[in-house]
């Protein structure tokens, strides 16, 4: 019984200690956590969790571990505020993934971001075609900021009245130099059609294409390597 009561007290103490540390450090917006913040949160949780089930650890030990780690985090925050050069190491830097409508393959590679992941992030921002994006920036928290091309901006009521009622989604036909045959078949297209479209734009081989998407009624959109 005493052990159960001790765990209860330590649990409440650990909870409020973590809460106070989090409020003090300003980590209230979870969606804006950087990689460093995420690691710090995991370690704080591990410190409290392990201490709760350690018979030799009491409230003083839990408090010491939590507030010592909190102090290190606070010092880190001060360092990143005072010394700009430390921010790229501790917080990371935003990466321009799409620049003036063109995919930045090296930036994607360094950010460990593939085409499928990029398309998922863009769709979450209401961009269902890479061709309609002028700029896309991968933020330090893993989210993406999107600026659409002027013709793809939010339409007026007049524009909406002129648009078709059933808009067609972009179909990815080439990704990382490989033809996506399933997508071609679902769109009633074939490899011969694709080769002809590539030749129209001076591309001789699909292996030279990093990304290509097709929208009915529009030319094939190609991003070379």
TrEMBL record:
Membrane topology recorded in Swiss-Prot or TrEMBL = Multi-pass membrane protein
- Ranges annotated as spanning the membrane: 6-26, 33-53, 59-79
The protein's UniProt keywords, in alphabetical order, are: Cell membrane, Membrane, Transmembrane, Transmembrane helix
The listed locations are: Cell membrane
Q: Where is the YetF-like N-terminal transmembrane domain?
A: 6-78
Name the domain of life this protein comes from.
Bacteria
Q: Which family does it belong to?
A: Belongs to the UPF0702 family.
Q: What is this protein called?
A: Uncharacterized membrane protein YcaP, DUF421 family
Q: What organism does this protein naturally occur in?
A: Sediminibacillus albus
Q: What is the lineage of its organism?
A: Bacteria, Bacillati, Bacillota, Bacilli, Bacillales
């Amino acid at each position: 019984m005493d052990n159960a009561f001790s765990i209860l007290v330590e649990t409440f103490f650990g909870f409020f200690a973590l809460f106070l540390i989090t409020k003090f450090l300003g980590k209230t917006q979870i969606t804006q956590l950087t990689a460093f913040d995420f690691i710090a949160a995991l370690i704080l949780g591990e410190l409290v969790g392990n201490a709760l089930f350690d018979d030799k650890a009491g409230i003083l030990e839990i408090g010491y571990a939590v507030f010592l780690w909190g102090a290190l985090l606070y010092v880190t925050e001060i360092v990143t505020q005072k010394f700009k050069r430390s921010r790229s190491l501790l917080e990371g830097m935003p990466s321009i993934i799409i620049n003036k409508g063109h995919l930045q393959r090296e930036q994607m590679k360094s950010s460990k971001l593939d085409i499928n992941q990029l398309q998922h992030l863009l769709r979450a921002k209401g961009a269902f075609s890479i061709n309609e994006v002028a700029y896309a920036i991968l933020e330090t928290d893993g989210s993406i900021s999107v600026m659409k091309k002027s013709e793809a901006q939010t339409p007026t009521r007049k524009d909406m009245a002129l648009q078709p009622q059933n808009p067609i989604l972009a179909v990815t036909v080439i990704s990382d130099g490989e033809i996506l045959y399933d997508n071609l078949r679902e769109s009633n297209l074939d490899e011969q059609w694709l080769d002809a479209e590539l030749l129209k734009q001076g591309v001789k081989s699909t292996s030279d294409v990093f990304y290509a998407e097709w929208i009915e009624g529009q030319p094939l959109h190609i991003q070379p390597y």
